[in-house]
Amino acid sequence: MREHLRFYRHRWFKVWIAMIALSAALIAVIQVVGNQAVLPAAFFYGAAAGPAALLVAIHDRTGIGNSVPGTTLIGMFLFGGGVALILGGYFDSLLIPDKHGPTILRVGWIEEAAKIVPPLVVALNGRYLTKAAGVALGLSCATGFAIMESMSYAWKSIHADGVIGAGTVLFLRGLTTPFSHLVWTGLICAVAFGVWEARGRVVITLPIVGVFVTAAVLHSLNDGLLVLDIPSLARLLFIAVAAVSYWLFYRATRGLKPEEILDSEPSRV
């Protein structure tokens, strides 16, 4: 308990504070001297602060960053996240005509399916079929997706609320996306790649279907609680959804240990 209370000593907290500070400093530059050229950087650091901090915390606990080459993880972040955003953006527009109506409850099914496509493509090539590698790939893809989505929300809000308002949006999303987009995709990949590691190939099983449905429902509940016309007090239930989401992810990955991953090679078929 004492160690948990000293969270400020952990690397994840230092990363989070540093990136928030950079975003705030860049926003201050815009406000003081009017230099709009630094706006994308301010948005990026603000959007990435929460996800980056969670990635550091997960790696320190599990060592998953050692399970896949760094270049592959960067590629999954840049291109996997981009592909997921293309798929999610297209089908969101196609299947969710009213962003403030009941159709918003479809978003979890669409976006969780979109985010699992890039890691699935890698798995179908027969590479990195380990649970640790799957979680690393899933988190990388979800991080790229979440950062770019958060930046898009900031761009939308800047016209109505100014740079300070956009920065506030990024700060709030930085607190929530690590316990939403990242853990939902990480949960699916933990279960799916765990099954595929045991089987030696990609198969669809009931546990995989079940975990996808769970993640999609949690995702849709989260968005519905924040968007639908419901009592303000009920919106606070999104905190419970985030807590349950992270708890499920933690349970799915608690068996991963840094020393075990360092001593193992990614499975190949």
Automatic annotation (TrEMBL):
Organism placement in taxonomy: Bacteria, Bacillati, Actinomycetota, Actinomycetes, Streptosporangiales
Transmembrane as UniProt keyword: yes
InterPro entries per the UniProt record, alphabetical: PrsW
Keywords recorded for this protein, A-Z: Membrane, Transmembrane, Transmembrane helix
Ranges that cross the membrane: 12-33, 39-58, 70-91, 128-147, 178-196, 203-221, 233-250
Domain of life (superkingdom): Bacteria
Origin species: Streptosporangium lutulentum
Name recorded for this polypeptide: RsiW-degrading membrane proteinase PrsW (M82 family)
Entry keyword Protein transport: no
